[in-house]
Write a structure and sequence with these properties.
7-stranded mixed beta sheet; mainly beta; globular
Length: about 120
């Protein structure tokens, strides 16, 4: 089993920044594509960003392009999501997820392991 734990969420004003972190254990970290998803109340779980095994490729939802940056440190078994210029519509629970395919899928069903999420609230 792969275990994931997110941290770094909180309350921030619109226009502010947060950095989310995800720590992974249970398997060689560099074997996996990593993704961030988010789920707002009453909404589905939507793709936010993904990064390939080596970190050489990234993928972003249109709604966060230019504002969010995903990165990883395989030596520390960590993946990060830097979120800048936050908007109230970014308010959601953010989840870290693991995929074992060679692509960076955007559908939640493709991911094999999930963290329990961290709450991000952006006030207006």
């Amino acid at each position: 089993q792969v275990q994931l734990g997110e941290s770094g969420g909180g309350l921030v004003q619109a226009g502010g920044s947060l950095r989310l972190s995800c720590a992974a254990s249970g398997r060689t970290f560099s074997d996996y594509t990593m993704g961030w998803f988010r789920q707002a109340p009453g909404k589905g779980r939507d793709f936010v960003a993904g990064i390939s095994r080596s970190g050489g490729s990234t993928r972003y939802a249109d709604s966060v392009k230019g504002r969010f940056t995903i990165s990883r440190d395989n030596g520390k078994n960590m993946v990060y999501l830097q979120m800048n210029s936050l908007k109230p519509e970014d308010t959601a629970i953010y989840y870290c997820a693991v995929d074992r395919t060679v692509l960076i899928p955007t559908n939640a069903a493709a991911y094999d392991y999930w963290g329990r999420g961290t709450q991000v609230t952006v006030s207006s």
